[in-house]
Amino acid sequence: MAIEILQLLVRSADSWIFEGSVSGLSDREWMALRYLARANRFSRTPSALASFLGTTRSAASQIAAVLQSKGLMVRKPVAEDKRSIALCLTGAGERFLDHDPMNALRDRLVALDVIDRSQLLDTLRRVLVGFDVGKRRHHADVCTGCMFLIERGEGKDRHFRCQFFRKAIAQKDTTLLCAYFEGRSERSAIGGPQDLLAKAMRAPAISGDT
Predict the structure, then answer these.
(1) N or C end of the chain, less CB within 10 A?
(2) Is residue 150 a contact partner of residue 160, using CB atoms and an 8 Å limit?
(3) Could you read off the pLDDT of 67-105 as tens digits, one per residue?
(4) Cα Rg for the chain, rounded, in angstroms?
(5) Which residues contact 190 (CB under 8 A, 6 or more apart)?
(6) How far, in Å, CA of 121 to CA of 106, rounded?
């Protein structure tokens, strides 16, 4: 059964892994565009993009340069630190995602029952987390499952804060991708308290990403 599942995943991969270009972008450029569309404000840096793509800063910068040359992305100074750069989609970039080759697969998934989608999501997440634990690396995921997200209050007084960046987060942003995600169940698997403390102490340096 595992082999059959693997074969099905491989068959679906032609929507995001392909030679040449689709609608003018390579598969890696599409991956970067999708990521920037869903990344939170802390994770739209060149180094975060490189981490997500699993490539070097130089290669990620080249991909970002292609997106910028096509008017799909711009580089903006970070409000908190003018020396830092944020990679932000333009309106044209957001509209360009309507041509995403993965949309056909997305539509098939949307057609599934909610329970089936939820089970598939949880299963694939566990598989990918297992890969990340084995390689001792961190993956991007949404804030709602991160151990650094603190939620307090109820109703109108409900608010969220990221302990890692020591900043408030809007509720709508808790469903965006964060390159510095730390799963609650991964604390003992990937690193102990000292590892997490060291990681949090390095957080301010992220704002200096250029």
Answers:
(1) N
(2) yes
(3) 999 999 999 988 766 678 899 999 999 999 999 999 999
(4) 18
(5) 132, 133, 136, 138, 182
(6) 13
